[in-house]
Specification:
4 domains; alpha/beta; Hect, E3 ligase catalytic domain fold; disordered N terminus; extended; three-stranded mixed β-sheet; single chain; Rossmann fold
Amino acid sequence: MARKKRLDVNEVLDRERAKIEFQEEQNIYHTAGYIRLSIEDSGKTDGYSLENQERLVRDYIADQQDMRLYRLYIDNGATGTVFERPAFDEMMQDMKDGKINCIVVKDLSRLGRNYLEAGNYLEQIFPFFRVRFISITDGYDSNSPDVTDESLIIPLKNIINEGYAKDISQKITTSFEARKKQGQFMGKYPVYGYLKDPENKNHLIVNPETCGIVKRIFQMRDSGMALGAIASQLNEEDIPSPARYLWIKGLSKEERHKDSYWDRINVKRLLTNKMYLGMLVYGKERTSFARGIKRQRVPESEWKYVPNAHEAIIDQELFDSVQRKLEGAKQDFFKMTGINEDYQPENLFRGRIHCSDCGRAMKMTKFVTTRKDGSIDRYALYECCRRKQLYDLSCPQRSIRKAAVDKTVEEAIRFHIRTFLDTEQVIAKLNRSLKGRAVASDIQNRIREKQRRISKIERLSTGIYEDYREGILNEEEYLALRKQYGEEKEDLLKEVDALLLAETEHEADYHSTGSLADIVRKYAEFQELNREIVEAFIADIQVHTDSHLAITFAFEDEFQRLIDMAEQRRRETV
């Protein structure tokens, strides 16, 4: 009997392949990640933020061998009690069109908070369209062989329980309100100058260590010392600020309290606190999980007071005298800064402008002054908060006019936009040159060459599987070839992706893509600088002592890639 010829491994490598990979491709789930954030999630942990939801969903899909992310659908600010939401509707249409066959969410409440409607999607709609549904933190996967009615009920119960939790929250809030009306202190930390009574934690007693400091601060202000001067004096004497005192005593574990100092703000807060008159003051903030309200400040006119709740540290006469001086200083400041005038400049750089010497934020202060000739001068300054609030003259930074910052930043943004667009045109022009077209043609040839090799590898895959079934290849040879082909195909696909990107970058009418490209085209013809444009382009501004500005732009890496691409194109076409 003639012996069946055994093919040489190298010969088989040059023959057929692809059946296995083709079959595996058919089992890949085209997966949608759905993310939702609404007012219902206010006050919750960062785990509910859009960024954390996206990270969790992306990481989960990337870890699954049988999933490929089709796209993310994001509803920001959409309530979960209804299912008519822009991104959700778009996802449902893509499901009906057959573009996706798997949906992944952080938890079932992201799908919706109406448990009846959510159950309808899970039990009727998704199965009808043969869509796999996964809720990551609920541990629910509709494709799991272990899935039961109970595994579906559990996440639905979570939604119901959240409604119960809101009801409990309302009852707790009502209970706390009743106790505060009786003069009971419900705060986490005692007010500076007081301690919680060891025999009754809801009652305050005078703290012998700090009550004298409170009295001294009132006396300093009553004698005419400015808030900044008081803060500076206390810091020089190394008297711990209220927050630092809590940290020293072990009452607070927050690291930021460790290096807290006295400043104009906490000095004024102490001087205006009616708790030192023996009153319980409450209702300064409003929080309601039940109504979806995160922590909000309440106007002082709506604060509530209970007299004689604890021993007073400051008498009414001294307190009133200090309030009159604070009000007088306030009115003087109003006259100097023109707060009562019609001048309301916008703080375009809030949170983005800092002192280069100490790193503190620069605060905008406006001024309306009368010149010698009787004319009015209106202007605003950015001032270092360290000097202004801590009264710390060790920082050499003083101030810079807002108009100068506005002008410099506007010119820098216009130059940034112009440079971006000009660089795009340079790249497109070089792409249209003879050498540029030759480079593009070479890239296209390399793409076709690698795609032909991929097709050949796919045919070879089919062939080695058939040879294995017929006994021409043993299992060891088959697995070795399959691994070799798989690795080669994976490398080729990566190379093709890179070449396709290069092909796009060598187009005759090249236009950059990305976040920076989008905002450049959106604001290319802007007429006047505003907060929206600043937020789009500016990451940070450092103000130096000589009023020099160091501007850090957003998406600098994207801008640098464009510059590098232009340099590369010049080298290619020389």
